[in-house]
Amino acid sequence: MNEFLELASKTVQKAFAEAGYPTDNVSVILSNRPDLCELQCNGAMALAKTAHKAPFMIAGEVAEILKKDAADCFSKIEVVNPGFLNLDASPSFVKSYLSDMSKEEKLGVPEPEAKETIVLDYGGPNIAKPLHVGHLRSAVIGESVKRIIRYAGHEAIGDIHMGDWGLQMGLIICELMERKPELVYFDESFEGEYPKEAPFTIAELEEIYPTASGKANPKPVDGESEEAFEKRKEAGKIYKQKAMECTKKLQDGQRGYRALWDHIIDVSVSDMKKNYEKLKVDFDLWNGESTVHNRIPAMVKRLREEGWAHESEGALVIDVKEETDNKEIPPCMVLKSDGASLYNTTDLATLEMRREEIDPDRVIYVVDKRQSLYFEQIFRAARKSGIVKPETGLFFLGFGTVNGKDGKPYKTRDGGVMRLSMLIEQIEEAMLAKILENKKTSSEGAIDEAAAKQTADMVALAAIKYGDLSNQAAKDYIFDVDRFTSFEGDTGPYILYTMVRIKSILKKYEEKFGKLPEDLTLRDAEGAEEKELCLVLTRFNAMVRNAFEELAPHKVCAYVYELANAANRLYHSTKILDEPDAEKQKGYLALLSLTGRVFEAGISMLGFEAPEAM
User: Fold this and answer.
1) Integer Cα distance of 188 and 375 in angstroms
2) Which of 9, 346, 458, 532 is close enough to 289 for a disulfide, judged by CB 3.0 to 4.6 Å?
3) What distance in Å separates the CA atoms of residue 135 and residue 140, rounded to the nearest whole number?
4) pTM for the structure as a whole
């Protein structure tokens, strides 16, 4: 289905052609002065020089043709100095477009001519560490972009790409060995089956890693003598060396360490899934750095043999600097001087694996924007060495930080890093308090606290996700609990409140008159508020295309906010349930039903849903 402005443009282009003018620069756009007109065309301005005519004269000729041939499309056709065409869409043209849109499963969003396969790399948490507020944006933005891609008709594959293979694993194993040396996993002579139950809980695991990391990398403590600190530093070196040995044994396949590692993965991933489930975020692939470990030697061998990688100060690197660079781009390191692999190595090997197993048209990384240089090195190294096909798109979708009201990264009250689960609980509690307070002052009777909690959780998720996604991804933003949970303004709760209001009207109609008529049909809009809502609805498929092309969830947020404002203006100006004209009432109901469907599609792309009541 063509976009609304595209159809309007074709009508105007036909008139320009009939008047004898080229149509290359002729298009209809939304008016930048909605108080004067709904649409405008500035095509006459660009033709003045070649046509040797004043733009006003050109626009006047086109306007006469439009008045004669396109009255069914435009109810107002005016020429304004110095040569603008001011247009209003006719109610019948708008109604016809929306009627066609309502018959489409995806509301007029066409299937793409060339379907892409797109891998989304988002999430990126480290095993054995709790998800914190810093993981919020990757999860929320990545999930929304994935959904937008799918709604636009393409295949999207989400990969969490966990950190599950480096020194952190060796640190955990080393600390477990010190605490529980009797565990069978450390008995190299053991040949039986290892226990199915993990020798630790998620709470223990989350305490073990920072403890081990602190031992390996000690920091001075207030009141500590320099001698005592130096002693701890020496102990830290020994501890770190033991951890590195544990890492090597794990990566070399020592049986007990691999079994212990399996437990670490199972316990950690199980907890991760609970957190991501709360955010309505899921992944098609639960791969980690370990997934590509076995293919690294062959990849490194090829890079050496084909001359892409060379030795530099003992390390193996790929030069990625280009002549056009206006800043220093360091080489991409493939192996450290001790022969160990690093993030670069696993990211390149992962790209190689994706090419062989998925062959994507694009790979998109949803990562903190401060890693832009790192990914520039990875992308250049992958292209230069043939790890990816020349035509494969590699995109870095960098996001800003989540800050508190002080403008610094969001923290707990005592200054620690805010756990993601705590952040979610904080919003849920604030939302529940508001809903219970609203229920007390309403005339609905007794409060069902279980139902209120379920509703609060749904609205809280909308508050969190909309609060994040309504910002451009690259920008930092302030996480303001009071603003995000407000039922007024540009917030998730406001969007859901509008949707629930629409559901309520349709439900009250059924309570009053019986089942909604099956022959609901849209009608020509009469009032300004009705026409405004109709025009916003016509822009849905253009918005989806734009959000997909720019990988921009904030475009969806802006659209559903505009839709909510238009729907509320209609609600406040029109007594739909008391409308005496049955046919007119059916038209309103048809418009509300379509608006509800568009809302549902929009918030689904953002990754949340609406309750039945609030």
Assistant:
1) 40
2) 346
3) 9
4) 0.94
Strands 477-478 and 315-318: unpaired
What separation in angstroms does the CA of 291 have from each of 297, 377, 445, 475? 13, 22, 56, 33
DSSP conformation letters of 541-582: HHHHHHHHHHT-HHHHHHHHHHHHHHHHHHHHH--STT-S-H
CB burial readout 297-317, b (16+ within 10 A) else e: eebbeebeeeebbeeeeebbb
> What's the farthest any 2 CA atoms get from each other in the chain?
95
Domains and CATH numbers, the chain: 4-89 (3.30.1360.70), 167-278 (no CATH)
175-228: per-residue pLDDT in tens? 999 999 999 999 999 999 999 999 999 999 999 999 999 999 999 989 999 999
Distance CA 20, CA 411 (A): 65
pLDDT, tens digit, for every residue of 146-157? 999 999 999 999
Residue 413 DSSP class: T
Edge-first strand listing for the sheet containing 117-121: 155-159, 117-121, 362-368, 393-399
Q: Residue 159, SS3? A: strand
SS3 content of the chain, % helix, strand, coil (to 5): 55, 10, 35
Using one digit for the tens of pLDDT, what is the confidence trace for 531-580? 999 999 999 999 999 999 999 999 999 999 999 999 999 999 999 999 99
Strands 332-335 and 84-89, sheet pairing: unpaired
pLDDT at 442 over 70: no
CA-wise closest residue to 162 among 122, 109, 118: 122
Task: Give the dihedral sign, CA 201/207/213/214.
Answer: negative
The verdict on whether omega for the bond into residue 360 sits within 30 degrees of 0, i.e. cis, is no
CA distances from 342 to 195, 293, 321, 346, 456 (A): 31, 11, 20, 7, 43
Which of the 8 DSSP states describes residue 107? T
Q: Which token pair is 217?
A: 């990398």
- Sequence-distant (≥ 6) Cβ neighbours of residue 275 within 8 angstroms: 131, 420, 421, 424
Contact 470, 449 (CB under 8 A): no
Q: Write the CA distances from 331 to 323, 327, 394, integer angstroms.
A: 14, 13, 18
The residue with greater pLDDT, 404 or 303, is 303
